[in-house]
Amino acid sequence: MSAIGAINSTPERPVVHAGRTWGRAFQDIRDGLAARELWAHLGWQDIKQRYRRSVIGPLWITLSMGITATGLGLLYSQLFEGEIATFLPYLTVGFIVWQFILGCLTEGSDSFIHNEGLIKQLPAPLTVYALRTVWRLTLMFLHNLVVYFIVLVIFFGPLSTEGYTITAGGTPQPGLDWSVLWAIPAIALIAINGAWAALLFGIISTRYRDIPQVIAALTNLVFFVTPIVWSTDILAKRFGEGGGWVKYVAEANPAYHFIQILRAPLLGNIQSWHHWAFCGVVTVIGWSLALVAMRNYRSRISYWV
């Protein structure tokens, strides 16, 4: 009787769901990174399938970006009184980076929805499907960089001149130098953030199918309030030195900081470390939220899709 009483008096431990552990969440990410041959192959197949039987294939990505950047650059350089030789490269790089960010948000939110068949049949980590999306977008980004190199060859003289401005009366820029190498860690940081965005928004969108439409609508607004087709120099000319309260709208926009950490070294612009600090904070917060989502809901994805 005493043994039975001792057993009954033992406090009950809370039952932890087998799929809701931090260990499983981290293991899924580790296994997903280790399966690089799988997501790299799937991402490359996405590119080949999209341009199957096309004459120039993936070069349509480069051609489309080149036409868009040229058209917008010629138009907005006149509207904002900018020299084509400096404003066109500014807009081109901004638009290239924006397309990558946009893809991570819009296509990332559909990462699991579009892989419904594989998720139900292939015993692979969920991280594989997010990395598949990011890798596909990275390949497209690299294709688009060809446009940057073409623009760089054409306008290398003005961009390498110390003191050039993006718009008339704007802030003098230092010009291209060896700081262009900062573009390498910038690309890596943007891709790392694309991975957590694909995981987090992919999980949320799988449960709530209206989220992709909400993201698409919001990104249209974000594009126009982000200094992509316009420069912050315009704010200083319009609202006085510092840009007034409107400048804080740009500073509070994460897309602006991610674009700037890559655009500044590629164009020889002034590099401000507060952009890197802002991106670092977003990276930590974003991955924290993605890990929480993976811990709590990764086991439900196969049912939600």
Write a structural description.
The chain is mainly alpha-helical and 305 residues long. 71% of the residues lie in helices and 0% in strands. It contains 15 helices and no strands. The protein has helices at residues 2-9, 22-34, 36-50, 59-79, 84-106, 116-121, 127-154, 156-159, 183-207, 211-225, 233-239, 244-251, 254-267, 273-297, 301-304. Helix 5 packs antiparallel against helix 7, helix 5 (84-106) packs antiparallel against helix 10 (211-225) and helix 9 packs parallel to helix 14. The longest helix has 28 residues, at 127-154. The radius of gyration is 23 Å and the shape is globular. Mean pLDDT is 86; it is low at 1-17.
Give a short summary of the structure.
With 305 residues, this protein is mainly alpha-helical. The protein is built from 15 helices and no strands. The chain has helices at 2-9, 22-34, 36-50, 59-79, 84-106, 116-121, 127-154, 156-159, 183-207, 211-225, 233-239, 244-251, 254-267, 273-297, 301-304.
Low-confidence blocks of residues: 1-17
Return the string of H and E elements.
HHHHHHHHHHHHHHH
Give the rounded overall mean pLDDT. Answer: 86
Strand content: under 5%
Shape: globular
Q: Assign the structural class, choosing from mainly alpha, mainly beta, alpha/beta, alpha+beta, or little secondary structure.
A: mainly alpha
Query: What multimeric state do the chains show?
Result: single chain
The biggest sheet, with number of strands, parallel, antiparallel or mixed sense and barrel status, is: none
Number of helices: 15
